[in-house]
Amino acid sequence: MTCPFLAYRSEANDRQFDEPRAYCEAAEQFVQPMRADICNDRYDLSHDEHCEIYLEHADEVPAGTETGDETENAGQSAGDDA
Ligand code: SF4
Fold it and tell me: How many angstroms separate the Cα of 17 from the Cα of each of 30, 32, 33, 59, 67?
């Protein structure tokens, strides 16, 4: 799962690019390339463990964007146990 604050924009804050780039809605700035692996939960990285920006803004995550998949998975697991 990617971070719910991750978006792709080609312009923001007086900066423009030809191709959309990773943009952090929480920090309101483009994501530094080194941080993109955290935003996308690549390798052993996780936005909800390794990003200080996410942790500062975790209470602002729009409802349903962070737990939607987990709720579905939990329902399937409960069914398997029955
Ligand atoms: S992981 Fe951090 S930097 Fe990346 S989009 Fe989420 S809050 Fe922003």
Answer: 11, 14, 15, 30, 32
